Amino acid sequence: MPFSKAQQQAIDLRNKNILVSASAGSGKTSVLVERLCKLVLVDKISIDRILAMTFTEDAANEMKDRLKKRLQAETQTDYIQSQLALLETASICTIDGFCLSIVKNYYYKIPISYKMSKSVASSAQANKAFLDAYNEACNSINTNDFVKLKLFFSSLGKTEDDILSNIRDLINVAMSKPDSNEWIRSLMNKPCSEKTFNWFFQYFIEQIESMIEICKNMKEADEQLFSLKEENLNTCLDFLYKKDYAFFKKQFEIYFNNTPGFKKTINKVSYEKEQGEFKKIEGNILNVLYEKEEYDQDLNNNIERINTFCTLSLLTMDIFAKKKKEMEIIDFTDMEHFAYKLLKQPMIQEEVRNKYQMILVDEFQDTNELQENIIQCFARKDNVFRVGDIKQSIYGFRQARPEIMQGHMDKEDENSCLIVLDENYRSNQSIVEFNNEFYDHIMNTTFTREKLSPRRYCQSWNSQAKRCRAASCPFSLYRISKLDGKPGRKFQ
Ligand SMILES: Nc1ncnc2c1ncn2[C@@H]1O[C@H](COP(=O)(O)OP(=O)(O)OP(=O)(O)O)[C@@H](O)[C@H]1O
Ligand SMILES: [Mg+2]
């Protein structure tokens, strides 16, 4: 298959860290596999000196198969035969698989037992150990604090099971960080994170913007009234943009008390639907328009719950780790954390760095912070080849952080190169267009071929998509400190 110019460049360029950024079906994996084949066949880099990481076992096997076929098609020299022999044990694997191989090699330096390094927990084992750990943690934290936490959850219509699932979510996020304990501790003693704080204003901004939108559409019915409302609401919006809650509240009350109401019928025309929608939004705002002090009080009350929640998470994590050690099993997050711990040791780091002449990473957009740190531990200054699709990272799947990919895209130094592929070889044009439209909508950007560059994606990511992600983020404390979706909702 003839490769495009950009694809060929991605296959042939050497001595640089390369990031290939492109949307689905643009040939990223094909390019990565071709590069792998060429490294072995043309550059004569032995397969055991290459690390190729994918995100599924199937993808890894397929990659191995393709390389195997290419090797079999060559004249069977000693070199080709040795490569075929090495292929079975080659580091063409998932990142977890790679981490497990590090753990198996150096288990005694963690230190864990040989048996433990080889026993991957079944999900039933891991679940049971987690549940036991959680129950023990609940029994050992301060009873009073725990009761308050339970009351808090029940005031939000949540059950004790929800505490458990929220703790699980929080721990999942924490485990994707290089220092999980430290990350959880960093959440303590703060009423809410900056993100939550922004969300709080965002909530009001969205409501007011919707009201303004309705006013604009209603001007043909009553120019004077709706211009007046719009003007007042715009002033509210200004205070929200300045993050001045007290003035926003005051201004909204002025608007509400001093502008005439929205009538169902204007000049004998019925606007029942618009009026209903408008009043509903107005009501949403009024419902949570508390005094600033009340919010502050609410947030302060939250600190105690957040601290209990974090303490419970830390304890659960700690007991869970001990249980796994007793049972001599490791789970997937252990593999990464143990590997990271090992790879930070200078001697191991050096060994692994010397071993891999080339590192290839597929589906890079799914890489989380810990995995990125693991790669950075042993990457040389110019030997990592990454391919990914920034659009796919907005879901926060596996705690992937789009910022990581963005960071590499923005990196412009003598060792880094960004290659963009913009042909789609899999989908027909209507699917491509739908996809573009869809992301255009999410990312609030005008999508044209010229604007397809990843940099633009990243810039737009910073605006709208971030919100989408925060809204769907499993991170429990968002839910707790944003009071389950409504800022300022009261609890006892
Ligand atoms: N230059 C090319 N000419 C023709 N077909 C191509 C070309 N490059 C890739 N393809 C084909 O396009 C399809 C998609 O390629 P590939 O799976 O490599 O894309 P991808 O960018 O990795 O997709 P995804 O984002 O889903 O992982 C494959 O069937 C592949 O064979
Ligand atoms: Mg692919």
UniProtKB/TrEMBL annotation:
User: Which residues bind ATP per the record?
Assistant: 22-29
UniProt superkingdom = Bacteria
* Tagged with keyword Nuclease: yes
Q: Which InterPro entries match?
A: DNA_helicase_UvrD/REP, P-loop_NTPase, UvrD-like_ATP-bd
Q: Which GO terms describe its molecular function?
A: 3'-5' DNA helicase activity; ATP binding; DNA binding; exonuclease activity
Q: Give TM segment ranges.
A: none
Q: Where is the UvrD-like helicase ATP-binding domain?
A: 1-428
UniProt protein name: ATP-dependent exoDNAse (Exonuclease V) beta subunit (Contains helicase and exonuclease domains)
Native organism: Faecalitalea cylindroides T2-87
